[in-house]
Amino acid sequence: MAPGGDVEFDVAVVGAGVVGCAIARHLARAGASVVVLDRAVDVGDGTSKANTAILHTGFDTQPGSLESQLVVRGRSLLADYAAAAGIAVEPTGALLVAWDDEQEATLPSLVDKAAANGCADVVLVGAEEVRAREPHLGPAARSGVSVPSEWVIDPWSVTLAFATEAVGIGTVLRLGTPVVGVHVGDEGLEVRTPDDVVRVRWLVNAAGLGADRIDEMLGHRDFTVTPRRGELIVFDKLARRLLTRILLPVPTARSKGVLVSPTTWGNVLLGPTAEDLEDRTDTATTAEGMERLLADGRRILPDLGAEEVTATYAGLRAATEPGGYQIHLHGDQRFVSVGGIRSTGLTSAMAVAEHVAGLLDSAGATWRGLPVATAPPVMPPLGERQVRPMRDPARIAADPAYGTAMCHCEQVSRGEVRDACHAPVPATDLGGVRRRSRAMNGRCQGFYCGAEVVALMAAETGTDPAALTRVPR
Amino acid sequence: MSDPAVLVVGAGPAGLSAAYELAVGGVTGVLVVDREASAGGIPRHCDHTGFGVQDLHRAMTGPAYARRLADRAAGAGVRIRLSTTVAEVGSDGSATLVGPDGIDAVRPRAVLLATGARERPRSARLVPGDRPAGVFTTGQLQQWVLLTGLPVGRRAVVVGAEHVAYSAVLTLRHAGVTTVAMVTSLPRHQSVPAFAWATRLGLRVPLRTSSRVASLHGHGRLEAVDVEDLVTGVVDRIPADTVVFTGDWVPDHELARRAGVVTDPATLGPRTDGWGRTSRPGVLAAGNLVHPGETAGLAALGGRAAGRRLAETFQRATTPPTAGALLTVAPPLVSVVPALVDPGDLPDRFLLRTSAFSDRRLVVARQGGREIGRHRLRHSVPNRSLGVPGTVVGAMVSDGGPVELTLV
Lengths: 473, 408
Fold this sequence. Notes:
The complex is a heterodimer.
Chain A: E1 8-14, H1 18-29, E2 34-37, E3 54-55, H2 66-85, E4 89-90, E5 94-97, H3 101-116, E6 123-125, H4 127-133, E7 144-147, E8 151-153, H5 155-168, E9 172-174, E10 181-184, E11 189-192, E12 197-205, H6 211-217, E13 224-235, E14 246-249, E15 259-262, E16 268-271, E17 275-276, H7 287-300, E18 309-321, E19 326-330, E20 335-339, H8 345-362, H9 393-398, E21 405-407, E22 412-413, H10 414-421, H11 430-437, H12 450-461, H13 465-468
Parallel strand pairs in A: 1-2, 1-12, 2-9, 5-14, 12-20
Antiparallel strand pairs in A: 3-8, 4-8, 5-7, 6-7, 10-11, 11-12, 13-16, 13-17, 13-18, 15-16, 19-20, 21-22
Chain B: E1 6-9, H1 13-24, E2 30-33, H2 53-56, H3 62-75, E3 79-81, E4 85-89, E5 95-99, E6 102-106, E7 110-113, E8 117-119, E9 135-137, H4 138-147, E10 155-159, H5 163-174, E11 178-183, H6 193-202, E12 207-208, E13 211-217, E14 224-229, E15 235-239, E16 242-245, E17 249-251, H7 254-258, E18 283-285, H8 296-312, H9 314-317, E19 325-329, E20 333-337, E21 340-341, E22 349-354, E23 362-367, E24 370-376, E25 386-389, E26 403-407
Helix pairs in contact in B: 1-3, 1-8, 4-5
């Protein structure tokens, strides 16, 4: 689509995170013509990419809240969707572990809360049983709570799958396109970008960290967003043997604590810290944050200290005030705002989309097209326990590029890096290649393959390698 | 494919040297597998001279040395299979090979792991800050410049001051990048004086000693590096678009660990005796997998020793060592390789590493509190090879408990 063109869509979704992409997919399947706008150059490049990758049950949400309903519903939708799309899910289960009297005293109330949220399989586990289940836990571990249905999922592929499916049925993805203003007219809305004006009939705000600003453009101050930085450490795959379940902290009045979790890529994730910031772009890690995490990690799994760190990063969560999911219909403006979708948003995204579609329907929205029953796209098998191309004789026989290793640490073939550059929602930067193929995400962080991946990506996409790596002129 | 007698994993100096010795020692069916598209390992992308001195007794560039070792092995009858990953060494001794031609299972009589070492990247060093482009390790930088010809940047900070850090400065210079500072947490550089002087005076690269990188800054591309003086606590912000993390070697031990061999907690590589025997029958290890960060020549010599012994006494060389003692070190020494020694079968040399500069250069070996040997080092510099002849423990007894090496 040429910038500056005078176009019209049924719906504009602001924000190409997991929630925005889920909404776009849902509305496009319902027959809407949809445009998704995001300032980032890739989908899921904001809060979504630094998600803790848990397929939640909602056991610890506020019973009866919108979040609770949408997480429960979303989980069931996403579990089915992920299975159909070939997105890695591991049914690990989770164990909340108490480390002191205060935490131990909290456990029964968590079981009650879980029951109120419909999670009947959440039960207390005695200290001996906790140790039997997770023998590498630190000596101070006490009793806990088992949450068998709390699983891990590949979060990047979820956003990509939603976007891929939406684009496949005509959704226009405008990345690198910030929304700088909105004008509400009689017939619809004018969404202003630095280059043009997009005329749409309905507007959905799924802008995550920027959601309050989009709301303000329409005169709403229902909530404010505070970026909450969470630092995380990813440990090497050799640490994966140290746990089988997600090890959750017991939240108390004083602290939320950090989790240690397996990932579908075969690593171990430790974090996140929680620190409220002013700067909505500050994803720097800090010495204090790393130190605190390592200390927590050693307490939870002492053997973790001897394993190599693969990656460290920080993500920003969109903490809203007031808290809880803030989904508001402003029918007179043909506007739905979706704010306050915190870390449960990955799990709830499909249900949030359903809910938003319901609100639009209740406001009388109709779509120009007919509903389409698309099947989920088949995503690349990125899970460590999936059959990846370099372990699949049939794929290698069909195309030797799938047997030609490029990223050794993550066992990513040349064919997969190539495919990431030509996907329906293609990678346009190195982060995009990482999230679509796992290349360069491993223990060496590019020592072996960095140069080759950049060279291949430049060749496949016709991009100047200096631009890919932002070499100063 | 037919089963090889010996599967060598890794076509670097250690693997190629071991394979050559096996072949000239009469072992037929030696297969070297490497995941890269060309043989030679790290020297492939080290475009400076000095390679080959320790093992071939002549100096050549890294790429020439890599070719020489590969040609020599191939000429002796070794099969070298490239672009092929050893996915697994199974508990039954079989190995799974993955390459563009497909997936094969082979069952060699012995596996020699020579998978080398890599530099710890920024993340593993827990350097905080932003995550911009422009952050390298030396290995990545060398491939960037010498193998793929990619553009680098303009102003670089090099982290480290051992040999490889000076090599990084040369590669940067070759790529048109000015090194604006070298940073080491130690009080002095750890290279040879000639490199250090040439870099400091010839290239005018200031060396910041007793300093560390405290943080990286930049959205998109690196903009500045915060360097903290560890003595004064003062932090300077140095504008730079490139930072190279050098040294801090960690063995590529994943295959070894997954194969279940016992790891040395100091080196993180497999614990071996002087002939590369590990705790697992039929699995050997040599080179920088065992002693990360040593020169290519020392890696080649380790491979040579393992290959020769394996060619001579196949049965014995593939049986885990039982007799003998464990070697330990006292601070500031941090590691010794090999750490397993049979008094009747001493290795040619021990490789030591120290963590701090010291005036003490005398290595004393003690067993059960009794001195059994001593050797004076030429230097005791951190991040450099410290070689001690095997005979330093010649007076040890096999049932006398561990032998401790101390610097006095």
